[in-house]
Design a protein that fits this description.
With 137 residues, the chain is α/β, with parallel strands linked by helices. The protein has one domain: Rossmann fold (3-Layer(aba) Sandwich). Helices cover 50% and strands 18% of the residues. The strands form two sheets. The chain has a five-stranded parallel β-sheet with strand order 3-2-1-4-7. Strands 5-6 form a two-stranded antiparallel sheet. Strand 5 and strand 6 form a beta hairpin. Helix 1 packs across helix 2, helix 1 packs across helix 3 and helix 5 crosses helix 6. It is globular, with a radius of gyration of 14 Å.
């Protein structure tokens, strides 16, 4: 388990970039106190971009290109696992980004996640057993 690593979900990422977001202040405080490594998947970037202005989307791309955030890409086996997760949690109506973050947690050994989505990530399990440690903003 990688204890200094945290997965980054859409809500927190959008809040960091959008000063008008209701979570912006809390996300900024959390980020200022965080001293680990952030990890996410491309689906989170795409989902985040949907909520941002063009200027903010450019900032998102800069953030993704920089040293702060490690971007992970599932291979064929990862995509198969995402398909399994989407089926397993179908009653929760998970989005692709959530399933991809569960895959990343499993493949990278990261169980901490920065999210504003306690409802879903309180239910999802890593490898079907282990709870996420929520870094609630």
């Amino acid at each position: 388990m990688n204890d200094d690593a945290v997965l980054l979900d859409t809500g927190v990422l959008a809040a960091l970039l959008d000063r008008n977001d209701a979570w912006h202040h809390r996300a900024t405080i959390w980020m200022g106190a965080f001293h680990g490594r952030l990890h996410t998947v491309e689906a989170v970037l795409v989902e985040t971009a949907f909520f941002l202005s063009a200027r903010q989307r450019a900032q998102l791309a800069e953030l993704a290109a920089g040293p702060t955030l490690t971007l992970h890409h599932p291979d064929a086996a990862g995509l198969s696992r995402i398909a399994q997760l989407l089926s397993k949690y179908a009653d929760q109506d998970p989005d692709w980004a959530d399933a991809a973050l569960i895959w990343l947690a499993e493949s990278a050994g990261i169980d901490r996640i920065a999210t504003v989505d306690q409802r879903d990530f309180g239910v999802y399990r890593i490898q079907g057993r282990r709870k996420f440690r929520l870094e609630l903003i």
